[in-house]
Amino acid sequence: MAELRSILDEAAREGLITAEAGERLAPFLAARGVIVEARAAGPQEPAWSDTETPRFVRGFHDVLITIGILIALAGLWGLASLYAVLPAILVLAEILVKRQRLALPAVVLTLAVFIWTFRMMLSVYPSNADLWLTGDGIDGFIVAFPVIMGLFYLRYRVPLALALSIFSGLALVLALVFRLLQWASGDDAFILNHPTLVSVILFACAVGLFVAALGFDLSDRFRRTTRSDVAFWLHLVAAPALLYSLRILLSLDGGWLDIMDANSFKTPVVVVIVALLMLIGLIIDRRAFVTSGLLTLGLAIYGIFRQGSATVDTYIFGTLVVVGVIVLVIGTGWMPLRRIVLRALPSGVVERLPPG
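^ that's the sequence the OP posted. Answer follows.
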């Protein structure tokens, strides 16, 4: 059974079948006596490999088709009405995603549906900034996204569609919470007048998104199914959401350039936050937690360098060198560093995480 499942997983990685089909085929074939003899000698395929990349491209065939999709949809978007674009997207999805299971076109078409939904909602709801700040119309604007992306996922099983549905669902919950607080307080400008409470709510939502991503990760620790792909997209947003919501919560976000102040106490605190997120990334084996903090880390290091008396060029290029070295050290030594970190964790926790 294990050998049969390994072969089906390999077929899914090659794009020959879907991961869901592989999960259903394994017990079906095993129940009918299909077995695979283990190889007596020679190197064996590992049950897990050090990768967190979702399945994007099987070959240049996918790239060529994707280029065609982008050009055709761009032309249609300019020539036809907004209502004519969605049927074209769905027809392409039926052919390229439902039948041929092409990964990169699936991602592009999913993003096209999301952008179409955004444009459609802009045509329905006002874009006046005051209305958005007070919350009027924002919940109605957002409600379309989890519904449409959820339906798209149910039909085509694209991991990005499920991730976008979760993102927008959480945004809808956030909007409804703010509307409830506005109603309870009688303050239409509740978001502007209560920044501390708003920052706590934003941080709680970021933590909730991270927990959702971690749930998908822990349910597929060997990253053999599309659940790991969903987790990839969720972590891609959860990492910067945690970083910047935490900066706002700790009153560290006085502006994008605030941490570049040579005398700011916020600079070392921000460096510590980024380091903690990088540590979380090592533990759960998600490099998004490293890349999400690079800009903030660069600004903070620049602020530290400004305490010297060198020229501005020295500050800038010195910052680039330091950040580049950090990225190279973490990138090239990811697995050794991760093994060191995992050795310090309880065995019960390590057994639920991806192998080190």
